């Protein structure tokens, strides 16, 4: 009977320890946004959208840039996506871009999740802007970060998108090349 109680207590202790260990492995998008720098961030295996902050970005968004290019972005939320050696709740983005003559410039609407070149990352410290990584034509440095936010927090049907191009040196790009998403310019999008 004594060995049974010892084994039972040992099992309960291991179960309790495992539950604490598993809980410490999951942090929220909110928690990560508050990290000043890497040493301050808790170690985690799963970055979870516990407050459903990503949900307001999900859907089809359309807008027009000043040069006449039209944009359609389709954002989907993926849970438990394995990226960078960890599991994340994040947004995946697909886009359709047409010039002012209605000719398709880019269409990734049918890309699989594995092949999409537009993927979510983190929120800013104020939880107002969501950062995504975009990689279009990497040879022309058409890659960098996209920031999504709502100019009016009471209106989640209108979103602002800003692309910030990486500062890499480009050697293979043809003269006059324009990034698919204008660099450092905002595009206002409407939820469809």
Explain the overall architecture.
By secondary structure, the protein is mainly beta. It has one domain (2-191). Helices cover 15% and strands 40% of the residues. The protein is built from two helices and eleven strands. Strands 1, 2, 3, 4, 5, 6, 7, 8, 9, 10 and 11 form an eleven-stranded mixed beta sheet that branches. It is globular and about 50 Å long. The termini are far apart.
Attribute tags:
192 residues; mainly beta; globular
In angstroms, what separates the terminal alpha carbons?
A: 67 Å
Outline the low-pLDDT stretches: 7-23
Number of strands: 11
What class do helices, strands and sheet pairing give? mainly beta
Order of helices and strands: HEHEEEEEEEEEE
Per the principal axes of the C-alpha atoms, what is the gross shape?
A: globular
What percentage of amino acids are in beta strands? Answer: 35-45%
Q: What is the oligomer described by this structure?
A: single chain
Helix content: 10-25%
Please outline what is shown here.
The protein has 192 residues and is mainly β. The chain has one domain. It is built from two helices and eleven strands, in the order H-E-H-E-E-E-E-E-E-E-E-E-E.
Q: Topology of this protein?
A:
Blueprint (H helix, E strand, L loop, with lengths): L1 H23 L1 E3 H5 L12 E3 L10 E6 L5 E14 L2 E13 L5 E4 L10 E6 L6 E6 L7 E7 L8 E8 L20 E6 L1
